[in-house]
Amino acid sequence: MQKPAAFYDQTYFDGHGKSNYDQYDIGSSPFAAQADVIEALMAFFGLHGPVLDLGCAKGYLVYVLRLRGIQAYGVDWSDYALDHAYPDARPFLVRASAARLPFADKRFALATSFDVLEHQDLENARRALKEGARVADRQFHQVNTGRLAEWVYEGDESHCVKYPIEHWRSIVKRLRLNGTMLCEPDRLLPFLVTADLRG
Question: pTM (2 decimals)?
Fold first, then answer.
């Protein structure tokens, strides 16, 4: 069952035991590598315009993208994460569920998420995928499938669905979401072979 927004609190982001997020800060992996992937995607598909990071947490990726000249925004539904967001990213972050985005159709060139879909129950994951396709020309999602032990899928109490990547792709196909790409951290899309998202 999907956790409520209140679950994503100080213990989740800055404590120990609920998640692995406490290992992240603005200088740590994997944000630079994720930004590399987004830049590669935009170059490969000739995308111009803003990027939306779904499940942006404290906005570290948004900040790194903006340093690179990409007009980036983020959404997260954790009050704690947004209240403690990186100061330079905070003006570009909005509280919202990935399954109900407060943006107009095709507002963004690219919607993206990194290790977010598995935190949704199946119904909300489907909605998030449809919403990403609605608000952006293309979307890209990295998913923790729990295939490798080092991804510590079981180490985050808020993980809901543990599907192989083929199953995620079948969901996208059934929803007819053209322009939607998914991968695992160690199995990237062909034009992203130089990136390493594992951090």
Answer: 0.92
